[in-house]
Design a protein that fits this description.
Layout (H helix, E strand, L loop, with lengths): L21 H24 L3 H14 L4 H13 L3 H15 L3 H13 L3 H12 L7 H14 L3 H14 L4 H13 L3 H14 L4 H13 L3 H14 L4 H12 L2
Length: about 250
């Protein structure tokens, strides 16, 4: 559910000669920490949280009060499934930065992985309610997922619809809303959401498969066959593809 963006490319170290003033030394210290931060972000983007963590820790030793470094440490620990450490650094980042919605969203995502549903809802709602947050649909969808896992299916559907109010083309909210409709035994509405989601992401194999299952429940064998054939076309060797082939053998 959170991403880190780099606001620059390469920061050169300044003032390496003797006789520099205190202000220039302080600036060099900041730049050193920034270099470690940028390197760490690049490692995260490459899918290497271990090397990212090493860089962020070096940066923290230089600038322990840097909010973005604390948030980055939270992300690195989160990816390494060190949840307690991730929470500590996310909380520290929020103390330093105030009500930063991106950090609140990232903390909510951490709480999802920790299955702390109520805490996740609180953080996602805080993020979504911040008028400066650029992606409220992500936070609303996270809150909906937490509600869903609590068995609060109507609340989940409401949150997903809030996400779609902010960004009607957000596929993840459509797919999650389908799950909520299934749980609420609202299959007809689920079909509509599936079709909308597949319009946005036409090659999503699992969605085609689940749509086929939905058509079977609604006794629409013709549409079910079409969905299962699309699954086989997209991913014949996948588990969904094999299951779709089995369904095609028995649908009359």
């Amino acid at each position: 559910m959170g991403r880190t963006f780099v606001g620059g490319v390469l920061l050169l170290l300044v003032c390496l000669t003797a006789g520099c003033g205190g202000a220039k030394k302080a600036q060099k210290k900041v730049n050193d920490a920034e270099v470690h931060y940028i390197l760490g972000v690049s490692y995260l983007q490459e899918g290497n949280p271990t090397l990212a963590l090493k860089e962020f820790l070096q940066g923290e030793r230089i600038e322990p009060g840097d909010a973005k470094l604390q948030a980055a440490l939270g992300q690195a620990y989160h990816r390494k499934k060190a949840y307690a450490e991730a929470e500590t650094h996310f909380q520290r980042a929020l103390q330093l930065a105030g009500d930063d919605p991106q950090m609140q969203n990232n903390l909510g995502a951490l709480y999802l992985d920790m299955e702390r549903w109520d805490d996740a809802i609180v953080e996602f709602r805080r993020a979504a309610g911040n008028l400066l947050f650029l992606s409220p649909e992500v936070a609303y969808t996270g809150a909906g997922f937490a509600h869903f896992n609590k068995g609060e299916f109507q609340e989940a559907a409401t949150a997903y619809r809030e996400a779609l109010d902010h960004r009607p083309t957000y596929p993840q909210a459509h797919f999650r809303l389908v799950e909520a409709y299934f749980a609420l035994d609202r299959a007809e509405e689920a079909v509509g959401e599936f079709l909308q989601a597949l319009y946005l992401a036409p090659n999503y194999t699992l969605a085609h498969y689940k749509l086929g299952i939905t058509y079977l429940k609604l006794n629409r064998p013709k549409q079910a066959r079409a969905s299962f054939r699309e699954v086989i076309r997209l991913a014949p060797a996948s588990e969904a593809g094999r299951s779709a082939a089995d369904y095609l053998k028995i649908i009359q």
